Amino acid sequence: MRPHAVSKPGSSPVSGTGPLGVWWELTRSQRTLCLLAGLWLFSGLDLCMSISAWRNGLLDSVTECNPFAALMIPFGPWALLAYKLVLTVAGSLTLVIYRRRRIAELTSAAVLIVYALVAFEWKLFYGICARSREVSLGVGEFCDSADRIGYVTLGCAVTLLGLWGAFTRRGGEPTAVLIRTTRSRAPVKLRWVAVTATGTCLLPLCCSPARSEWQHAREALHGTIYFRDCLDPNGPLWRMNADGSDKTALPPGVRGEPSGQLHGDCRWFLDARGIPGATYPDGGQRRELFAVRSDGLSVQLTEQSDLEPSPFAARWPVHAADRMISWVARRWDHTGQVIEGGIYAGTVIFSDDGQVLGLVEQPRDPLVRLELVDIYDSHTWWRTSVPAIYDHHWSPDGAAIVYESTRSELFIADLRARRTTCLTTGPAIDPAWSPDGMQIAFKISNGAGAIATIRPDGTDTRIISRGRSGRIVGVARPVWSPAGGHVLYQRIGFPRAVELPADVDLLLAPADGDFSANLTADVYTALIPIAWR
Questions:
Q1: H-only helix segments in 300-408
Q2: What angle do helix axes 122-132 and 28-55 make, rounded to 10 degrees?
Q3: pLDDT: is 418 or 493 the higher one?
Q4: C-alpha–C-alpha distance, residues 38 and 351, integer Å
């Protein structure tokens, strides 16, 4: 590039060669206007992306990249947007006030270049930051909007560049001079006209509502998701649509796993409740199983003073169409010793109008008998010997039960062959059998953990979502969709400050684990998934 002269403010510009020559030959006011236009263009992109990230529950992860912006999070997303807007206005005013100083112009240009690179690669930039911090990245609609907003901004930038190149002649002469020159048959810069047309054509294409895989998946989701607040174990259940909309609290006292079907337009929930004034030999309050209707009506199912049920392990087996329940329990003898324990089952009686009447008979022997082990003191509902099981889940055909042992291993009890086999070789908890019976979802419980699937024969283990280090510390409690194509799970994270609640959300992922979507970004408490019906 040949050296060229730089025009001073108020003087006639001198011609130069190359893009930089054209830039420096512009008047100072023209350069300031270009920098201001670029600053506001990319600031607008960043604001749009922040709103999109907030709507998809990803705003917390985005602001980790900026410590000053992170301070705005406790005050809400609009405080963050106001902060960015004030920052843009302050930068614009600084550029205008000090536009006669070369350092202000150079600094603004450098900041704009970095800002533009980050803005155009917003999704990539966010993904790199998320992976470096091992923060769960919800792809879905967020990445779709990231692409769309990014390309719209790119189209605007290309259009502005083309207009500037077509209507600004070398030497910084204004548009009127170029028009007069054109009338005198001077060559028109057709390349800049082509650039302008290209940018203008990009806008309608980028603004068209592209449909992502997650949008298609949302339309395919059906059913109702039930969840509860893990910080309030005695609180009511909540329900929401499969896409995360219409979150509604059930009446107080409705807890436990819901029935698989509606009975009299209502679902029934299994709940272990204490019996006032009654205790077990070790002093613990006596509990019995109750069926609780979705409107709060309860019916006692069990009546055995020597059989103590676990309060969190009652199930409606899918194969029995709600005509059967199973639960984990232990039995006492007359001397006050625990003599047996395992998985018990009973047949439920329904009236013609869908009312639960009770059990056909009280069980005397466990369906699956398990060895007795000593329990840790943290499980206050069982203070002495207990069956070696925490939770269980039936196969769709009713031929087997997968259960989590007290050693954090998964076992399958084959009810027909009457044998038990170990399913996993490493620490695993929270089993859930898929509706088609081909896979079992579970949590790998070593380290930060992961949500995975495995075949009932112990082969073909696949990771759906990994637990991560940093603020996001783990995942847990997978629940299958009724059709079996998606898995709902719990993502657990530490709060940003001591006074904030724990960051626990419910995420949805396809069974192949391509992406995850946060369904409870608008709920600021710790949540546990119960069932998907």
A1: none
A2: 50
A3: 418
A4: 71
